[in-house]
Write a structure and sequence with these properties.
With about 300 residues, this protein is an alpha/beta fold. It is built from 14 helices and eleven strands. The strands form two sheets. Strands 1-9-8-6-5-4-3-2 form an eight-stranded parallel β-sheet. Strand 2, helix 3 and strand 3 form a beta-alpha-beta unit. Helix 2 runs parallel beside helix 3. The chain is globular and about 50 Å long. The two termini are about 25 Å apart. The model has no long low-confidence stretch (mean pLDDT about 90).
Length: about 300
């Protein structure tokens, strides 16, 4: 047991990343049942849909799980109220500051864990009274910051006193050992769980994950101040061309309209937004969530030996 497992009451210090339209009850409950922390992603989700997903997850597991609050969403206040109503005890947050919700969340006894991309934000979150941090480097899939995981985690753990979970570039026990060496209390994995049997995405998306190498991801949207890492395909190539041509935001948004749904629902890996991190080259087979987590722990125990 370490800081993060003790805080959350979970067996292993492994979080499942909150991936919009993907991290729902089948994956979340599987991760929690296997000893990690499953996290429901609320991105683009209605309050009614979230209610359904929380209730399903509660039926599928009696272990702790979390809900990720996308703080820029218009219905975020309703989502916070729903989380409290349904007795969810852990939230992670992204896309903003949880400041306005902190009194309500803490009054309800909820553990609050923001995802941060910088030391500056990490310090601000600690001042707010959050319980822990997910510190995410630019190697991660989806929406990202600009600092790599190794220097970012190293800097944050020296700057705050609350537990840190390292994210961005983790998929196995070697990564877990590295995170502990940096001073983190655990890791968050997203891309690794995309290639799980329980992940509710089409087989074509999973096959794209396991067939790709570490150089197959690309970052789009930097010109718009909203960088996103995904697998290079027909759509992202077109986006990059349009960015180089300095096309306006409206034209770029027109290209990406519905692109996430194309990937995660329709399985269109050419024109969809196939989000994934740079660790993709280390993921070579589709396995059960339990196997992914247990193997990660076994590898950690094997590599965590004195070498000097």
């Amino acid at each position: 047991m370490n800081q993060i497992t003790e805080l959350l009451g979970i067996k292993y210090p492994i979080f499942q990343g909150a991936m919009a339209q993907i991290s729902m009850s089948p994956l979340v409950s599987a991760v929690s049942n296997a000893g990690g922390l499953g996290i429901i992603a609320t991105g683009s989700m209605s309050v009614d849909k979230l209610r359904e997903e929380i209730l399903k997850t509660q039926q599928l597991t009696d272990k702790p799980f979390a809900v990720n609050l996308m703080l820029m969403m218009a219905n975020c206040e309703e989502i916070v109220d729903l989380v409290i109503e349904l007795g969810v005890k852990i939230v992670t947050t992204g896309a903003g500051t949880p400041k306005r919700f902190m009194p309500k969340l803490k009054e309800a006894g909820i553990i609050v864990i923001p995802v941060v991309p910088s030391v500056k934000l990490a310090k601000k979150m600690e001042e707010l009274g959050v319980d822990a941090l997910v510190v995410e480097g630019t190697e991660a899939g989806g929406h990202i910051g600009e600092v790599a995981t190794l220097p970012l985690v190293t800097s944050v753990v020296q700057s705050v006193s609350i537990p840190v979970v390292a994210a961005g570039g983790f998929s196995d026990g070697r990564g877990l050992a590295a995170a502990f060496a940096l001073g983190a209390s655990g890791i968050q994995m997203g891309t690794a769980f995309l290639a799980s049997k329980e992940c509710p995405i089409p087989d074509s998306y999973k096959e794209k994950i396991v067939s790709s190498v570490e150089t197959d991801t690309v970052v789009t949207g930097r010109s718009q101040g909203a960088p996103v890492r995904s697998i290079l395909n027909k759509m992202t190539l077109k986006y990059i061309e349009m960015e180089k041509a300095e096309m306006n935001r409206e034209e770029l948004e027109k290209l990406t309209m519905g692109s996430l749904r194309k990937a995660v629902v329709e399985g269109n890996t050419d024109e969809g937004s196939v989000m994934a991190g740079q660790i993709i080259g280390n993921i070579k087979q589709i396995r059960s969530v339990e196997d992914i987590i247990e193997t990660t722990i076994e590898e950690y125990r094997y590599v965590n030996l004195p070498i000097i």
